[in-house]
Amino acid sequence: MKPFFLERAVVVSSVVLSSSSAFQLRQSFHRRHDNLASPSISGRILEAKKKVVEDGDGVDLSSKPSSMDPAKRAALDGVLNQIERSYGRGSIVKLGDAGNMVVESISTGALTLDAALGGGFPKGRVIEIYGPESSGKTTLALHAIAECQKAGGIAAFVDAEHALDPVYAAGLGVGVDDLLVSQPDSGEMALDIVDQLVRSSAVDVIVVDSVAALVPRAELEGDMSDSQIGLQARLMSKAMRKITGSLSLSQCTVIFLNQLRSKVGVIYGSPEVTSGGNALKFYASVRLDTRRKEILPDNKGIRVKVKVVKNKVAAPFKAVMLDIIFGTGIDSWGCTLDAALDLGIVERRGSWYAYQGNQLAQGRHNVVEYLKTNDLGESIKEDVRQALANYGQPVDLDDDGDVDMPDADIDLEISNSSEELITGFE
Asked: Signal peptide: which range, if any (predicted)?
């Protein structure tokens, strides 16, 4: 049907157009007709699979000739060469030739949160952590810095709020002697420092505390009565445009801490909104909402609920509970036990917990204390990390052709109250 249509087009065009134009159109028709007669890509793959079954030898499909039109291939090679001459070698490549396509990550310090994020904070991306006051935002960021330093990386902390506590940071495992700290005078200075650190490709993690404290220079130099509308939003929008282009090349992770504000006159939906405009919401690959749920017994800490409201590298909308102990940070062994339960590494039989058929202890508190003092704790933690590392590997297909995924069961709790409902669709 298609060649017949094109043949009629040639006949009609030969009457209206000049003889040379009709000749070019006929040549185009013959090229397309030859392409229709050539074997398709799917046909080549089926033939290759058939040869594998018959001969029992592997076939390198990449060595097979392409069914692309030679004229189109020549045009593609020409434009690719032109782009590389204009912008440098490697400015455009095939995705399959780009190397490892799995996004690497940095641990958050809590294995349950790592499982919810698909491995941790992704490298080369923008992260936003927001929530009310005293909900664990800075603690999460400092734990990410500590994990980065344990792996031999370099971290920087842009303290726009001028409220960093070195003693508390050291208690969480941060190497304060090696931590780069900046207390900028204005928002422009803070974001310019972040931009230069990212472009240097020498820093692995940068924490900005916080977006609400990034005050534009015009607002600082003006009077208290001056109305400066949208200055901070424009500042953040420009910064995101400049920073994100360099992040993927430097593999630096930038974590922005943000505060909540209340919109006036909202009847339906949540009145809560983050400061700094909407640019950060769009550019962030991961957004975490932290909420303080309760105070732990003996006032030793708080229990925090962390919800993944946006995630571009794994499944979003998961939630985990974290115990933050005053002075030491996240209860890592409690998170290890919870993650092991979710991944099926540790089994719960009533009030007893078992690992590889061996009973550990009775009750969660006793199991956590047991893991702290027993070598099995390190074995369980290593099994959890190995299971999380497999999240980034290509998925397998079972006999039915369905995706075979790990039996991870991470609860997602959604509240309908206006106090806790934060939607992931901004």
From this structure: none
| Distinct helix (H) and strand (E) counts, the chain | 14, 18
User: What average pLDDT does the segment 337-352 reach?
Assistant: 90
* 298, 168 Cβ separation under 8 angstroms: no
Higher pLDDT, 35 or 314: 314
Structure token pair of residue 25 = 């159109």
Enter the tokens of residue 397. Answer: 């297909």
Amino acid identity of 35?
N
Residue 368 CA to residue 366 CA, distance in Å, equals 5
Write the DSSP assignment of 220-245 as a string of letters. Answer: HHS-TT----SHHHHHHHHHHHHHHH
Q: How confident is the model at residue 68 (pLDDT cuts 50, 70, 90)?
A: confident
The H or E element containing residue 129 is: strand 126-130
Strand 126-130, strand 396-397: pairing: unpaired
Going from the C-alpha of 422 to that of each of 72, 399, 425, 426, the distances in angstroms are 49, 40, 9, 10
| CA-CA-CA-CA torsion sign (91, 97, 99, 104) | positive
Task: Report the C-alpha gap between 280 and 237 in whole angstroms.
Answer: 7
H or E segment at 180? strand 180-182
Is the pLDDT reported for residue 18 higher than 60? no
Q: CA torsion 118→326→347→116, rounded to 10°?
A: -10
Residue 145, Cβ density class (10 Å: 0-12 exposed, 13-18 middle, ≥19 buried): buried
Tens digit of pLDDT for each residue in 115-166? 899 889 999 999 999 999 999 999 999 999 999 999 999 999 999 999 999 9
Considering only residues 4 and 280, tell me which one the structure prediction assigns the higher pLDDT.
Answer: 280
